[in-house]
Amino acid sequence: MSLILYERSDCPFCWKVRLAMRFAGVAPQRIPVASGEKHPDVLRLNPAGSVPVMIDGGLVLAESAIIAEYINEAYASSALLPGDAAVHARIRQLAAYSDTQVGKALRGLVFERRSKPEAEQDEQLIQASETAWRQRLDWLEERLQGDVFVERFSLAECALLPRFALAERYGAGVDARHPKLQSWWQAHKAQTLEAV
């Protein structure tokens, strides 16, 4: 296998792809790209210049959702997208919500705490980000059925779990206000952190 993944260890989009690959039992050659780096290979392979970028033989893919779905079909026998068309749509909706809404909510918090000394952090931005994170958790808590979003691990978890890990890393994890999500996160936390 000639699977290559250009990625950043702290990027939730890359983390999503690594979770899908881990589930599928594939171990790519990982090429780290530093935050803010304009890696020449990435610029050549992806017009946006962003990671993740995956090469599988002659196939080059960018965009985490596309890569994760490819890994699911090519290596996981579609196990990350179980069920019928309605379940597939639900999984994709949760993954898109993670990428567009949850990620956006956490952005201020993560960027402030990750890249600035504490004395220079914008506390108002952090507080606004934490509030937005809690609102996204409210929406997700309503959609969690028992302790699962779907009957088994799926592309939705691949997208959501890295966001929960980053939130926890930067001081805004999930707590007793969202008991179903807290239980779900605890059930998946170890495998999420192993995919770093």
Explain this structure to me?
The protein is α+β, with helices and mostly antiparallel strands and 196 residues long. It folds into 2 domains: 3-75, Glutaredoxin; 85-194, Glutathione S-transferase Yfyf (Class Pi), Chain A, domain 2 (Up-down Bundle). The protein contains 7 helices and 4 strands. A 4-stranded mixed sheet has the order 2-1-3-4, covered by helices on one side. Strand 1, helix 1 (12-24) and strand 2 form a beta-alpha-beta unit. Helix 1 (12-24) packs across helix 6 and helix 6 (155-169) packs across helix 7 (179-194). The longest helix has 31 residues, at 85-115. The radius of gyration is 17 Å and the shape is globular. The model has no long low-confidence stretch (mean pLDDT 94).
Order of helices and strands: EHEHEEHHHHH
User: Which strand order do you get reading across the main beta sheet?
Assistant: 2-1-3-4
User: Which CATH-level-2 architecture of the largest domain?
Assistant: Up-down Bundle
Query: How many individual helices?
Result: 7
Q: Give the low-confidence spans.
A: none
Strand proportion, as a percent range, falls in: 5-15%
Instruction: Indicate the CATH class of the largest domain.
Output: Mainly Alpha
- CATH T-level fold name of the largest domain: Glutathione S-transferase Yfyf (Class Pi), Chain A, domain 2
**What is the terminal-to-terminal distance?**
21 Å
Question: How many distinct domains?
Answer: 2
The rough form would be described as globular
Portion of residues in helices? 55-70%
What's the alpha carbon Rg, rounded to whole Å?
17 Å
Number of strands: 4
The secondary-structure class comes to alpha+beta
